[in-house]
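Dear H.,

Thanks for agreeing to be a second pair of eyes. The structure we're designing against is below in C-alpha cell form, covering all 422 positions.
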C-alpha cells in the first residue's frame, strides 16, 4: 500500500486548479442510466470512486468512453440491473444506481452497503422513499431487491414524501427516480447541497421537469423519457476548502482556480474568523495568512451550514491555532478518527461524545500516522504540512478516492510531499 512522506514547514504559494466535484460526478454518472441517448460529461476528476462507478456502469452494459476529464456514457442497451456486494463494499455511493434502474427499467438488485468507518450510514430513507413511490422492495441475503412490475405501466408513482433526515444521496436517488415516474413527486426536507443542485440542473437539460433544487422542497413532474445532454460537473467545494485551509495553516498565499466562493460561505466565514484573508472573483478564491491563526468553533450541519466534509480539516487548523476550539460533529456518529492520529503528532484534543475540545499547541511533531477515511486522511496531510520534521501517512488509498493529483498539486504550491509506493 502506498504512503505519503511529507516534510513540514513550507509556506504554500501560487495557484491550484480545483477539479470537478466527486460528490456531484457520482450521482451524475449514475443518471446516465436514465437516458435513451448518450450523455457527455466534462470535468470528471480522475479519482478512485469515479473509476469504481464507471466500472459498475460498464458491468451493466453502459457503453463508456473516457478521454481525460471527459466521459461519454450510452445506456441505450443496459443488460444487467445489479450492483454486486463486491462493487458496493468498495464504494457505498453505488446505491445511486437504485433510483435510476427502477425508474427506467422497473427492476434493480443492489447490495446493501456495509458499515463505514465514519458511521453506520444506513440507506433506509432511500428505500422508504422508493416504497412510497410504489416500488416493491425486499431485503434478502444482503441485497435490495426492487421492482415496479406490479404498478400501472410498470412506472413509479409520484408522491409527496417527507424525509425525516436530510440525506444527500437519498435526495439524489429519489429525485432521479421521480424524473421518470407517473405524476408529480414533492420531496420535503430535501438536501440543499450544491451537488444536488448540479444533478438537478443536468436532469433538466436531459428533459426532466424539476423545480426547487437547492431548497428543502424539490418538485419533480415525471416525464416519459430522458435524453443525453452535455454537462460540465460543478467544481469540488471540499477539495477547494481543503487547499484553502492548507494555505491558512502554512501561512502562505494561494489562488484557487475553478473555485466558487458562493458554494463555501460557511467555510470562508470560519477562515476569516481564524484570521485568514479570503477574497474571490467569479471562479477564483485567494487565501492569504501569516500562519498565526485563532481557534474557531465548528458545528457541522447540512448545507448551507458548515459541511461535515470539512470538519477534519478544521480540526487540523485548530490544533495549531491560538486558544481553545469546540468542534461538534452532528452528521456522523464516528467522524473523529483523525483525532488519535493528530494526538500522536502532539495535538491537544479531548473528545466528549460528538464534541472535541482542541487546545492549540505551538507546533506539531512529524510522525507515522494512519489514514482511516477520506477527509481524515486530508486532515493528516494538512497536519504534516505544518509539523516539525517528517510525517508518513499510511493507507493513502483513502486519499486517492477524493483528491485528484494531490501530491502534484501540493508540490506545485511549494510543499514537500513524496509518494512512497510499496
Ligand atoms: C454524502 O453522503 C456525501 N457522499 C458524503 O461525503 C457527505 O459526508 C454526506 O453526504 C453528508 O454531507 C456523497 O455525496 C457520495 P447522508 P451520504 O445520506 O449521502 C443518515 C465524502 O467525504 N442517513 O446525507 O451517504 C446518515 O447515517 C463523503 O466525500 C440515514 O440514517 O450522507 C448520516 O448520519 C463522506 N438513513 C446522515 O443521515 C439514510 O437512508 C446524513 O447522511 C440516509 C442517511
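And this is the sequence the design step returned. I haven't edited it by hand at all.
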Amino acid at each position: 500500500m502506498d504512503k505519503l512522506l511529507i516534510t513540514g514547514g513550507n509556506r504554500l504559494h501560487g495557484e491550484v486548479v480545483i477539479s470537478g466535484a466527486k460528490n456531484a460526478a457520482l450521482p451524475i454518472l449514475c443518471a446516465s442510466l436514465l437516458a435513451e441517448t448518450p450523455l457527455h460529461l466534462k470535468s470528471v476528476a480522475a479519482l478512485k470512486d469515479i473509476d469504481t462507478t464507471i466500472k459498475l456502469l460498464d458491468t451493466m452494459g453502459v457503453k463508456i468512453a473516457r478521454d481525460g476529464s471527459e466521459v461519454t456514457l450510452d445506456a441505450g442497451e443496459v443488460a444487467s440491473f445489479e450492483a454486486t456486494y463486491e462493487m458496493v463494499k468498495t464504494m457505498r455511493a453505488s446505491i445511486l444506481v437504485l433510483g435510476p434502474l427502477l425508474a427506467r427499467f422497473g427492476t434493480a438488485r443492489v447490495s446493501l452497503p456495509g458499515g463505514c468507518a465514519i458511521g453506520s450510514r444506513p440507506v433506509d430513507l432511500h428505500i422508504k422513499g422508493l416504497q412510497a413511490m410504489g416500488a416493491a422492495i425486499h431485503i434478502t441475503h444482503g441485497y435490495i431487491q426492487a421492482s415496479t412490475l406490479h404498478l400501472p405501466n410498470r412506472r413509479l408513482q409520484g408522491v409527496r414524501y417527507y424525509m425525516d433526515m436530510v440525506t444527500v444521496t437519498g435526495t439524489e436517488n429519489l429525485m432521479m427516480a421521480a424524473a421518470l415516474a407517473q405524476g408529480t413527486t414533492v420531496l420535503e426536507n430535501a438536501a440543499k447541497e450544491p451537488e444536488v443542485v448540479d444533478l438537478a440542473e443536468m436532469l433538466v437539460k436531459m428533459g426532466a421537469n424539476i423545480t426547487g433544487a437547492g431548497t428543502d422542497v424539490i418538485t419533480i413532474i415525471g416525464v416519459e423519457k430522458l435524453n443525453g445532454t452535455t454537462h460540465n460537473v460543478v467544481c469540488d467545494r471540499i477539495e477547494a476548502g481543503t487547499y484553502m485551509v492548507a494555505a491558512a495553516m502554512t501561512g502562505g498565499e494561494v489562488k484557487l482556480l475553478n473555485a466558487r466562493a458562493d458554494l463555501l460561505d460557511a467555510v470562508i466565514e470560519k477562515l476569516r474568523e481564524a484570521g485568514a484573508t479570503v477574497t474571490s472573483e467569479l471562479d477564483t478564491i485567494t487565501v492569504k495568512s501569516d500562519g498565526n491563526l485563532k481557534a474557531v468553533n465548528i458545528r457541522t450541519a447540512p448545507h448551507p451550514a458548515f459541511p461535515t466534509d470539512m470538519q477534519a480539516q478544521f480540526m487540523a487548523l485548530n490544533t495549531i491555532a491560538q486558544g481553545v476550539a469546540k468542534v461538534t460533529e452532528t452528521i456522523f456518529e464516528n467522524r473523529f478518527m483523525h483525532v488519535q492520529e493528530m494526538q500522536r503528532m502532539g495535538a491537544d484534543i479531548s473528545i466528549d461524545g460528538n464534541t472535541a475540545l482542541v487546545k492549540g499547541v505551538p507546533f506539531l511533531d512529524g510522525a507515522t500516522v494512519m489514514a482511516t477515511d477520506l477527509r481524515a486522511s486530508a486532515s493528516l496531510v494538512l497536519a504534516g504540512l505544518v509539523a516539525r520534521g517528517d510525517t508518513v501517512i499510511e493507507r493513502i488509498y483513502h486519499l486517492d478516492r477524493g483528491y485528484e493529483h494531490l501530491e502534484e498539486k501540493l508540490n506545485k504550491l511549494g510543499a514537500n510531499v513524496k509518494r512512497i509506493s510499496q
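Two observations from my side: The pocket of EPZ is lined by residues 22-23, 26, 93, 119, 121-126, 165, 167-170, 195, 308-309, 331-332, 374-375, 402 (CB under 6 Å). The two ends are 5 Å apart (CA to CA).

Warmly,
E.
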